[in-house]
């Protein structure tokens, strides 16, 4: 039972609380011989690091990762890779006043009931801080996958409150994400959303977001029917990210309104004629780009007073001071890429176990 | 690596192909002392059984389940429960003509590439026939959960093509599902959808559907952060059902447009004031009803000719004769309930393992 | 938690009680393309089948296995292989008189306390009958391993009570096992042991046995440090066989008396100079023959009255009528081979997952 | 696939190499509310710490453990417990000369073939240094088990080369172990063995050892048939310890020579009349003391030159300088206790999952 472990063959176990001494991860099952150093991982962590701009929490964390094991003379050895990030900026006093109250929309209430005790400092284990280790582990998977198959992961914010975009829009371009303060692939949407967020900050409120993922270069044949389908594991991986409330593959919820003659992707000698399926058929990758979208709820940590109860069950009111993101979906972008990488890495190893290397050579059919 | 096994503590392993000798399942980890017989499981299977009405495939399967082990003198013994259903109505000749072609929208292409061989008869392992064993195993979980906690599972079709409903509609009532030919909780929507399906059958086409799930009576504290969150496992369980392309919890994708002040559910001494979260906070059940929705794609098996390629990669055209549902989402309803039951059963045992029985006694807070 | 499942990648799940309707297994993870039919499995089952000679239980079971899924047109498809054996000769009345008593040396007492209920007919799930499915699953693994690597499994009885042998004895020869009624590789020992067993049958008593295993052709590199070492998994696999009380690798307990200068196996350009290690170094196969020994306890089902208590805790006496082996170790031989095959098959797939096919090509160094 | 993880519900994942920056572990699944601090773990580490006396390696390691997560205000929270020990005394130059040679009896050869690369410094991951984290994790399990059930773990060296003892000996007393330099329960044997070891050190040789384990206070009902039997998991746990080559339960290999009338333990209203079974029946704990023995091979790191080959396959000779134990079995004692604690802890949680707390209350029957 691996509550804090992801994966069957490429296994990532994370530990650590928001305001503990450190957070860390153990990556078990990484193939040997992969060139790896902290410098390969740090850039991924820097992307999700807090304090990057006015739209992310002011909390300052160096988030500098250390590799404690599994790498020798610059290469992975096949033994578990220990990763550690020390927590440096912990202002626990920010949280003392909520020690005895359950913040609405947070895990305080459920953790208290489940475990009988809870580390109330910044949400403890339930803090999104844990996702830093997912990003660190995902960076290793992404490095392996790009070197082995040329697999590329693109994720970006395609909706913030009333502002949204899609690949059909004139200004939509994945390469824009890297330089955009909102990790948005559409400059026009981004500018409108930034104005919206400035007002939101004045209001002391927060907003949700929708993130789109596209993965290219995935070979045909990844995914294990019937339960461990590639899309099923992807759904779990993405839904396991803090604040995510919905996951879709390909056309997603729109398929409920489609006809079979409209949805099915025709096959031609040159490849598929369309990609309504989102790159997965019968739970197995088809060689087309894998397309998914996820919805992030607005953070409940806002400065607008909220009605709640205290641990004695008495009515109370709460204002979350602390330092928080007005839109947690923004920093969720690298986490979405990381989880997708962990899923695909794990399934590649599973495919190789049962079917051998040869099947990985199947030409990746795309238009 | 349990591709054909669901669960950590309440483990269900299924096997069998659409046109093989039989399909079966092994349920491992069921607590001893549960009164159980075939009569407790059969009604659940009868709900998803084909040939129930004009809107489901004409294939006739008795789908009568046999318990081969794990039950002694009418009670479970704690040893694995073997379940078997023999395939009786297999018209393999229906499939001979597609032996060398990949049906668009089906798993033919991906299975062929992944495994190098495939059982083309009715989709073999990729056929939704496999879900019969999920329903059989889910029936055991549902019996345990209703007796232990009074947990109730409600699922129903809330959208078919252009026709949809929601709990706010005047005719929406869960009790209507049992008697409705489309497993729809809204008579008005059902009648309109039935007219729509009749025309669809004439056209030889199919359509997608959206199914809503509500689970009541779930105790507080089920779910294992950080990866095995209750909602994450629910997302995987539902996405693993054939034809499902999207899963949402609570307000789902709508949260991308919400503000924190609007989304967070206030806590009062009498319970939560709303349920935008859908019964899960931080991946742990809150005691509120668990609410989820899933989208089923339209089946690709239609009598309208489709463009495809054969195993030599040459262009071809295909018409799926066989016998199929115009809307697979309808018969997906009992499968959705079954998978939800497997997830909750598994997490209840995990909760008991780490926290003991006492935590299950936490009063179930609801408005 | 897979109490009734063996393996990580080549997974075998068994079910069924001694006197239930049937026993069965699901083999999940078998590579596709392996030629397989019942005829490949049956001979292995026939070896352990009861009623073969005067030294094994008189119970008559056809033990004819059926493949229910996972094989199409004579080849495995990569989907789970369902195996079933119907129980034909069940004389439950033999057991009615022990319904309320705990047979000493049996699992009656522990099952009753653990589960609160127990299927007392022939020991129910605790009966060695379950091992028939291990042999069936092991047969599939052995077929794959001999075809892929030429791996050969040799097991035989090397001790029965006071009579024993070892590879140094003049009459010791593995090929003798197949034709020997005691599965003994040494004709001289076998004849003496047969006389001993005849007297034992007259006495209504039973005796223990020691079984030796040698596996040749295993490539270098199988085994996953640190916990899933090849020898550790072998130890678990063998200790999980009914009645086994001890497992040793290579020189086994004798190493406690050895010096380092005597134990370590020197390496030469032509290979290892000796094999005190038993083919495993650091938990990884060395390419030498894997050598293990196991001890089977004498069955407690004998006709000599034994002191015990009934379910009310009152003192009582019991005589096991039923039909039993005087030496269960004999029929344990094919089970030992089967479990070794499951371990090696699983580790081969794990090796391929992490290190790819290439590492399997490492020349197998042997003297 | 959890090569570096032990357990299903009480999961311990270890990482780290002998001469890396640090070694660590993540303990996932520990019940919340257990009082825990470094001071509870350190004494267990100090027992196996090198440099304790002339009979253990001169390597000096503070081995001071840090708890990085999972504990808040002195109590476990139910979230993963991160443990870290920094490596302080690494003399890598000791190993430079064996960089290109395979030490006979070590894992150098198998690691090199399996992974293609190896950290040759002190054996890297294959070093027994890894067992420090097993002891740290085991300390947590032991604290929980003694507080919950009063379970006590006794292990001691009962054989070193030609010198041995057993519980029947006049000087045999478990309480002697704590003060004995060889962790031997028999002063007479210890004194003789110490003289033997002094000579061995002069010879630059090493010797094997046999360690006996007795666990008292284990409730009836722990263990999961059929594969995850308590004795099977114990066998794997103990065989997974570096240098262990054999494991026995109860009478062990002696059962091969016993008769059923002699072996079976009679049940009386006051409990079992004997314990040939070693506290396990049908893979489930009987409530009697659990008795096991393991054999440790002599370390191959000795100053007597050994024949070997280098990485080019050419013949060579090697002398292990480094700093090593003449008898690794001595420091194996706390590791044996730790692994037994991990097995029992895991099975207790598994028992509670399936059967609930009530079954833990079953009176623990002992003479």
From TrEMBL, chains A, B, C, D:
CDD domains: Chorismate_synthase. Pfam families: Chorismate_synt. GO terms for biological process: amino acid biosynthetic process; aromatic amino acid family biosynthetic process; chorismate biosynthetic process. Belongs to the chorismate synthase family. Pathway: Metabolic intermediate biosynthesis; chorismate biosynthesis; chorismate from D-erythrose 4-phosphate and phosphoenolpyruvate: step 7/7. It comes from Pseudidiomarina marina. NADP(+) binds at residues 48, 54. It comes from the Bacteria. Reduced FMN (FMNH(2)). This is Chorismate synthase. Its EC number is 4.2.3.5. FMN binds at residues 125-127, 242-243, 282, 297-301, 323. SUPFAM superfamilies: Chorismate synthase, AroC. This reaction introduces a second double bond into the aromatic ring system. Homotetramer. InterPro entries: Chorismate_synth, Chorismate_synth_AroC_sf, Chorismate_synthase_CS. It catalyses: 5-O-(1-carboxyvinyl)-3-phosphoshikimate = chorismate + phosphate. Keywords: Amino-acid biosynthesis, Aromatic amino acid biosynthesis, FAD, Flavoprotein, FMN, Lyase, NADP. One of its GO terms (molecular function) is FMN binding. PROSITE patterns: CHORISMATE_SYNTHASE_1 (PS00787), CHORISMATE_SYNTHASE_2 (PS00788), CHORISMATE_SYNTHASE_3 (PS00789). GO terms for cellular component: cytosol. Its cofactor is FMNH2. HAMAP family: Chorismate_synth. NCBIfam families: aroC, PRK05382.1.
